[in-house]
Write a structure and sequence with these properties.
By secondary structure, this protein is α/β, with parallel strands linked by helices. The chain has one domain (16-144): 3-Layer(aba) Sandwich (Rossmann fold). The chain is built from 7 helices and 5 strands; from the N terminus they run H-H-E-H-E-H-E-H-E-H-E-H. The chain has helices at residues 2-12, 16-21, 31-43, 54-63, 80-89, 107-115, 128-144, and strands at 23-27, 47-51, 68-71, 98-102, 120-123. It has a 5-stranded parallel sheet with strand order 2-1-3-4-5, with helices on both faces. The chain is globular, with a radius of gyration of 15 Å.
């Protein structure tokens, strides 16, 4: 009986050891958001890389492809839209899941980023519990693939 409960619990969460293997890249020009997301996701056991702009993010990706990217849309110089378009052209990142985290919540922009290859959308201000659930869900699918 207990083994069934343990298996059920294991099926619903990603084990801590598995989390440490996942690398998440947070790309946001807001230092506050970057620090917040890094703290929350690090506490949950993920390896976190951060970039305050698209140029920094490109450099990180060249060294090592993340398992997941959390991307803001409204960034100076290279927008999140442009960054998403570029990483979808790159063979290293063409299939890397991207969750967009943005204050642009109108249907037109959400539809646009989904067509561009984002896997999910989380609105700002960020509901941290919801974001963690979305991250878990996306990475759980990665384990099964």
């Amino acid at each position: 009986m207990y083994s069934n409960l343990i298996l059920l619990a294991l099926d619903k969460t990603i084990e801590m050891d598995e989390k440490k293997e996942f690398k998440i890249l947070v790309v946001d020009d807001s230092t506050t958001n970057v620090v917040l997301l890094e703290a929350i996701l690090d506490e949950k056991g993920y390896q976190i890389e951060t970039a305050l702009n698209a140029k920094e993010a490109y450099s990180i990706i060249e060294k090592e492809t993340p398992d997941l990217i959390l991307l803001d849309l409204l960034m100076p110089k290279i927008s999140g839209f442009d960054f998403l378009e570029e990483i979808r052209k790159n063979q290293k990142t063409i299939n890397t899941p991207v969750i967009v985290v943005s204050a642009l919540t109108d249907e037109e922009n959400i539809e646009k980023i989904m067509k561009m290859g984002a896997i999910d959308f989380v609105k700002k201000p960020i509901d941290l519990q919801y974001l963690v659930e979305r991250v878990e869900s996306v990475l759980k699918k990665t384990i099964k693939s």
